[in-house]
Amino acid sequence: MMVGTAAKVPAVRADWFVATASRAPLYYDILQLPLNLNELERQIRADATTDIQQERVVRVGFSGSGISRFNRILERHDSINGMYWRTYDFDEPPTNLVERANGVLLPDRRNIFAFPLGPVPLADQPFQHAGGEAIFALPNGLHAYYLVKADNTRLDKGPIAIVSDPKRPDRAVEAGVSCMSCHVTGILPKEDQVRDHLEKNPRAFSRTDVDLVRALYPEKEKSLAKMEADGKKYADAVAKTGAKVSKFEAVSTITLKYEADVDLLSAASELGLTADDFKTEDQRVAHARRPRRRAASAGRHGHEGDLAASLRRLRTRTAARLALPGQPQRPDIAGQHRRGRPARKPRGHRQRHDLHARRAKSLHRVRRSQRANVRRGRPPRSQAIRGAHGLGLVRGRERRRHETSLRQHGHDHPRVGHRDGSRARPLQRAFQPGDGGGFHAERQVGCLRRL
Question: Which residues span the domain enclosing 405?
Answer without folding.
Answer: 368-450
